[in-house]
Amino acid sequence: MVRLGFIIGFIALLGALLSGLAAYRVHDQELALDRIALARAIDVHASLVQDRLTERELLARVASGLFRAPSVLKPNMLEPLRSAIYAFKTDFVVAGWVARLQPNELAAAQAAIAAAGFPKPQIRDYSDKPIAPASLTHPIDVLMDLEPRSDETKTLPGRSYDQDPVRSAMLARARIEKRSVASDPLPLLRGNGPIGIIVAAPVIPEGATEPAGFVTFSYELASLMLTNDDMSLFSVALKDPRKEGGELIANDQGVVSTRIGADGPAPSATRTVSFGGRDWQLSYYAKTNSARRAEQTAIIVAAIGFAITAMVCGLFGYVAYNNLRLSREIQVRIGFERRLTAVIDELNHRVKNILAVIQSIVTRTLRHGSDIDVARELLIGRIHAMSNVVSLLSESQWQGVKLKGLFEARAIPHADRIAVTGPDIAVSARAAQSLSLLFFELASHSDEGLSLVGKHPHITANWTVTGEEPEEVFHFRWEEFNTSEATRRPDSDFGLILLDRVAPEALGGTAKRFFTDVSYVYELTAPMETVVDMTERDRTDKISAPVRPVR
Asked: How far apart are alpha carbons 50 and 91 in whole angstroms?
């Protein structure tokens, strides 16, 4: 009995220890997963908010570009845009035309507003007090037309924004900066109306330096912040730029209210979005307590472990195995995400390099004063050469390209007239891009009219590798027979730069070109270390390797 009690006690103690360990591990894992899920959801939400804000700013720019200010004041200023603005977006509260009027234009503006059928055509300040033209010494901004027209909005035309601190500051910035500008958050339509922002884009007539007015769009803040989601992991607030520590937060019904952030909990995360030339800070507050939820989950796991220990001790092995499997899956997932980030960074780096090369090719080829037909053929050929080498690199998973493959007929002109000799080495991605453009430039400027001499080819391209590792040297020689300085077509400016500077510098070597009695010769010498570049190949191979769980 003593031995049995000892065994039962030992098993119970072991079960208690294992249950506690399982609860601890589950607690950490649940906490980590909740944090990862929250961070991902916040990143996605911030990206969507930035896209939505950018779309609204673009709408204002497009509308101002489509708008043509009339030469005289007349009603229905937005008539040319009425169908277009509804086609763009339908979630704006009000779209308006704010004219910048001289004091002597107020009477005509008042008549135009009355003719448009608005019930309060008199020009007045934002508190609805009439404005006397004789008291004005400078232009004022007056709302002349708006969409949609309702009983609530029809009374707004005729108001001047000069006395409204938020709207006047927005219009002043748009006038000075000559671009679309967003206002600070403010109540729309009325003092207790929904809180939102207004985007104003200046309309500058052709040949003028000052805007004739502004096209404005107002949006509710809740819809822009994408807050009406009761299934979200968080609530989002916008930092109020007018109050230190103040925030504007919307509930699940879309009602925006103001609160002081210092009196409440600190945000779980913050993100910054750019809109109207300013940075707006979004604060995110988790709706659930991740630590408490993890603790509750850990307690449940421990209780289950104790119950299982009391009934069947053998189930502890299964619990341990299941816990290990879950841990490995999380490790594999984290490793995969890290590998994916590295792949994206590497892809961005390579795409930027390729785009930079193409931009240089286009700029140099289509320079001012160049013959358009020749430039077009050269541009197509150079980009074709780049496309061919990228295709070859993609087929080899960016592990390098066989040097002889760069002389294919689809890559360079007159490939059938070129005798290629040399070891078939695999050059790195960077070297392949430079050599592909180099071979195209040499072949495109070779003299097409000259034929072969005897059994000797008209053009020869050969290369050798000399020396011992790690001091091996790559030697390349291009020779065009039966040509001279007088008969060969001169190299273009871009070609000279590529031959003399870009290709040698990319490979860390030197180059020279000259004419002999019977041929034109171009020679390139570079260390094999940069031509092959094993570090780049090892990095690519490491990124493409499958993710393995940590043991």
From this structure: 16
- Is 495 in contact with 545 (CB distance < 8 Å)? no
SS (H, E, C) 318-361: HHHHHHHHHHHHHHHHHHHHHHHHHHHHHHHHHHHHHHHHHHHH
List Cα–Cα distances, 471 to 407, 526, 528, 538, in angstroms.
27, 11, 8, 20
325, two tokens? 């499997």
CATH of the domain spanning 367-544, picked from 1.20.1250, 3.30.420, 3.30.565, 3.30.300: 3.30.565
Cite the DSSP H helix spans in 140-215: 165-177
Q: Which structure tokens are listed for 411?
A: 């890559």
Taking only the tens place, the pLDDT of each residue in 367-409 is: 644 567 666 766 677 776 667 677 766 666 666 788 888 787 5
Write down the domain spans for the chain. 1-334, 367-544
Other C-beta atoms within 10 Å of 265: how many? 8
Considering only CA atoms, which of 218, 153, 241 is closest in space to residue 190? 153
Residue 86 structure tokens: 């509804």
Calculate ∠ Cα 325-330-335, nearest 5°: 125
Q: Tell me the C-alpha distance between 501 and 6, whole Å.
A: 84
Low-confidence winner among 53-57, 315-319, 473-477 (lowest mean pLDDT): 315-319
**How is residue 498 annotated by DSSP?**
I
Phi first, then psi, for residue 476 (nearest 5°) are: -120, 135
pLDDT at 70 over 60: no
Mean predicted lDDT score pLDDT of the chain: 76
* Strand residue runs (E) in 450-499: 459-466, 473-481
Superfamily of domain 1-334: CHASE domain (3.30.450.350)
